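Forgive a beginner's question, but would it be possible to get a protein, spelled out as residues, together with the matching structure tokens, please?
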Amino acid sequence: MARRPGLTEDVVVNAAIELVNTQGVEQLTVAALAQKLAVRPPSLYNHVRGLDGLRQAMVLRGLRALTAKMQTAVMGRAGFEALVSLAQAYRAFAAEQPGLYALTLRSNENADPEAQAAGQAAIDVVLAVLHGYGLEGDAALHATRVLRSALHGFVSLEMAGGFALPLSLDESFDQLLCTLDCGLRNGFGQNANPDSSPLQQ
């Protein structure tokens, strides 16, 4: 097999992203990627640190791309307008790059410092939007989890074909955002103390 000219880390990572976006994360192997690039598997190790190193590079690329998309969407906006723009950017990223999106879902708490910083940058965009709702500290972090859970639940069901009824998905998404907006505006976090939460009674 002839060596592919111009093989670089960017070429390898880009090919891996294309592979997971079209075939799924579970199909990402060194052998599959080498076949896609028309090289022998050992050639890839000149550019990435094996499958784990490749995944790390892809996670970093995904987090940075998602962050940039959300930052652009919310720029100059606040309140409900910012929430809608953030959510639409999140949904669009998941639809455009489903495999890469899936790789960004895991916690980066134990990842390398670069990935941690990239994950925090994404969170900071969300926190800035929530600041417009007057949420800070633990309340803002709880709200971040709620928002992420709602958005991920919707987009994952959408990508899996989980919505079969003949109703507009865009309208359903709008209703989800209106519900989130209502919750964020009306006393979110008042039951953050488990002792006072009706869920614990």
Q: What stands out?
A: The mean pLDDT is 90. DSSP finds nine helices and no strands in the chain.
